[in-house]
Amino acid sequence: MNSRQALVIVDAQVNMFDEKFSIFDGDRIINVLSNLINKAHAKDVPVIYIRNNGGEGEPDESGTPGWEIHPSIIPQTNDVVIDKQGPDAFDNTNLEKTLKKQGIDNLVIAGMQTEMCVESSSRRAVELGYKVILVEDGHSTFNFDDLNAEDEISRVNSEMRAIAEVKTADSIAF
Question: Which residue segment(s) compose the domain that 117 sits in?
Fold first, then answer.
């Protein structure tokens, strides 16, 4: 059986790019995501957006401007948007059902937040038997007082190498 790929874009929502508190290297990340999406569309590779539904008053509260997918990478007609309510994109969502229905067994994963949703969803995908490629330069997080974004990106890339492929966006071919 041939391997079938999908590009999974995790939580690339407006709230991640807020002028007051934005993810690390946000402009570069959105360009990387946009380029990956264009490459996937050019090869008819499914693009699946994961969107976090934050609680009331949170920056990504459902239906608020911060909850929307970033305007630079708006989903196209055939793209799938799956809403979630926790770090793991498979938990209480129809993601696995959607992948199985399309015969997808190979996931290219990029997006936000490195140490939360990207890492949790990537690890869960591996546990479920998917071949995972984490986009080394295609995920980011925030700089918090007790967490350095560059260090977290590096840690997750390093740890994921033990269970998945970690490749730069330029080296990914669909």
Answer: 5-171
